[in-house]
Write a structure and sequence with these properties.
Layout: H1 2-5, E1 12-28, E2 35-50, E3 55-61, H2 65-77, H3 81-111
């Protein structure tokens, strides 16, 4: 919707068309242990350059080529000083609000199941 609402869409050309492949996801037990291969996931990547010379790069989870294209386009457009402020208001601020609302909802859901533990002292030393 942000792309559709954009008034002056720039022309651009591909440096690398969207392509989907697999990446190995690695993890660490407890965040500090030895790294291990968790599994593979699909990722779509692409690179483009706008007529103003700004290059946009995108790596998105899954195989949605249009998502990767739009991510790369907005990456390039956000590098343009003349567009950054308007894009921040139209695109990034609403996304920040959505993320904050999701986080708030998640915290409220987990708070409803919160258990408080306490210790009763028996009076013995």
């Amino acid at each position: 919707s942000a792309w559709s609402a954009l008034e002056d869409k720039p022309s651009w050309r591909w440096l690398r068309k969207p392509e989907t492949g697999l990446v190995m996801v690695r993890g660490r037990a407890g965040g500090t242990g030895r790294a291990f291969n968790l599994g593979e996931m699909s990722v779509t990547r692409c690179v483009l350059v706008t007529e103003e010379g700004h290059s946009g790069h995108a790596y998105v989870a899954g195989s949605d080529r249009r998502h990767a294209e739009l991510a790369a386009l907005f990456d390039a457009l956000l590098q343009d000083e003349t567009r950054r402020q308007a894009l921040d208001r139209a695109l990034l601020t609403p996304l920040r609000h959505k993320r904050a609302a999701r986080e708030r909802d998640r915290c409220e859901d987990s708070a409803s199941s919160k258990v408080e533990f306490f210790t009763m002292v028996r009076g013995e030393d």
